[in-house]
Amino acid sequence: MTQRRSFPFPRAAGVAGLLLAAACAGDRTGYVGPYQSEVRRAIPEIEESSGLTFKTPPKLEERTRDEVRAFLEKQFNEQLSPLELSGTQEAYRLLGMLPDTLDLRAFLLDLLTEQVAGYYDPATKVLYVVKDAPADIRGITISHELVHALQDQYVRLDSVQSLKGDNDRQVAMQAVVEGQAVYEQMATMLGGADFGMQLPGGWDRVRDMIRSSQASMPLFANAPTLLQETLLFPYLSGAEFNRQFKRARPDAHPWAPFASSTEQVLHPERYLDSVPDLPTTVTLGAPRTGSLVYEQNLGEFEARLFLFEHLKDAGLASRAAEGWDGDRYQVVNTPRGAGIAWVTVWDSAVEAAEFRDAMEQLIGRRFKVAANTGGSSALRRWTAAGRHLLLSAETIDGRPVVVYEDLPATITQRVLAVDKVRLEGGR
Length: 427
Hints:
By secondary structure, this protein is an alpha+beta fold. β3 (116-121) and β4 form a beta hairpin. The protein is 46% helix and 19% strand.
């Protein structure tokens, strides 16, 4: 979900609150400034755990909660055009992942203001700490954000924020960055790379604690599933990716290069393989009817979320989204209202068929249509709840593809020009 990744790495208080304060000695950091004892205590262990050293001492400043909100508003205005924001909001509404009554910009501003206890800004090279954060959370926030400050001295973190037009890749990059910060922070506090083995329940227990801690925050607890899961993904799945990366390549760094898709984050072996599984780039032509409003992709992670939103079966959603190899959607404005066309590419015909079967179940549950009413051919259609729905199996450039369209009921012709779709790369 594009909006959440447009900000310079805010540290969520709920995630921070579950961790223990780090305790380590060291005053050879060269750091002088706010929270001097906390910074000098954290730096040596972060450097030892990560295998990186600070080239220059970090900079810290304090901010009030009002200043944090003003900063977030500034980020919205600078990094998301009104067209991008409205297009994203419309896409997730059409997919049934956001309620029509939710003002995405206003809700996200409130939600992130609730969550942020501190953040590192690559533009200013400053770590900002919220003044009214509880002392225990503040100390852990500083430790986490110091990892981001260290990362930024070796790789351009602003490249994550500035990426345009590839939502899935941006999610993956954010997960690598946040996941490394979570993992290294916890490793320094809990005794090294196998710290999960020291906790009752191991690594799964750590994940459950993070999720439960976030859910205790009022706005987060009442947020749509899409926003909850996309806020948690960089911390949870990103940390798991980094855990597996560090086991496989203990002397390397996970952003050299960055993961190229959420598929690689969810399945680290597809990043670590000698021939990485790279996503297919999907190029769509102009819509056959109506005007193009917005274009973007979802990736395996958000495709899984879409299925779960309507099927409420995590196992089915996970299985049906596996095998994803690329996607692209268009939001279009027709004479009768907004619609969406979504193209997904799959590793095999079997995986494409499994996804299409799950999509048929989704259409049935979401739009209250009976099974087997859309036809039996490769192209299936339904009219229900004021919408015209289309699901088709295609072969494009020799690759198995599934096309989904959701349009106003009176728009009966296909919006997507299948003959104009182009695929590049991937397997």
